[in-house]
Amino acid sequence: MEDHLAALAEAARRTRESAPKITAWGRHLAGVFEAGGRLLACGNGGSAAEAQHLTGELVGRFRHERRPLSAIALHADTSATTAIVNDYGDHEVFARQVRAHGRPGDVLVCLSTSGGSQNVVAAAKAAHELGVTTWALTGPAPNPLAALCDDAVTVEAPTVATVQEMHLALVHGLCAALDDALGVTA
Question: Could you tell me which residue ranges the SIS domain spans (predicted)?
Answer without folding.
Answer: 29-184
